[in-house]
Amino acid sequence: GEPKRWPADRFREIGRRLLEDPSTILLITGGPGEGPILEEARFSLPTDRALIYAPDPIPDLVAMIRHTHFAIGNDTGPLHIAAGAGVPSWGLFGPTRGARNGPYGSHCGYLQSATGKIDDLSVDEVWKAIRPSTTARPAR
């Protein structure tokens, strides 16, 4: 995979765990042209509660992200948009440094691969880190 992209099947497993709460709706986002990887992340998840959203133009994505309750992602624009909008956000980092690249704010956190390889972050490690943030609902 790409050095900054956590594998889609691992995002899928995090999504499966989040969807154990019947009130959860999962929004799998990306940019134009990322449809295949987003479909891979959604594979076998219930399509009525695991939705893909990769709009062009990007302002539509920004508007959608502002209404979410939690965000997790690679070191990408949508993660930083969520953090800037006050959404509890977790970044996953391999070769780039989370301490320098954010997401920023008391409502945010990040996981840094000890080896510098994003593939070395396990699903269980990520789940343990993000779980407290997924149950909190932002006050807005």
Q: If you had to describe this structure to a student in words, what would you say it looks like?
A:
It is a single chain. The protein is α/β, with parallel strands linked by helices and 140 residues long. Helix content is 37%, strand content 15%. The chain has helices at residues 8-18, 35-42, 58-65, 77-84, 98-101, 123-135; strands at residues 26-29, 50-53, 71-73, 89-93, 108-112. α1 (8-18) crosses α2. The longest helix is centred in the C-terminal third of the chain and has 13 residues, at 123-135. The protein is globular and about 35 Å long.
Rg over C-alpha atoms, rounded to the nearest angstrom: 14 Å
Distance between the termini: 37 Å
Strand content: 15-25%
Strand arrangement, major sheet: 3-4-5
The chain-level mean pLDDT equals 92
**SSE ordering:** HEHEHEHEHEH
Counting DSSP H or I runs of 4 or more residues, the number of helices is 6
Shape: globular
Work out the number of β strands. Answer: 5
Structural class: alpha/beta
Helical content, roughly? 25-40%
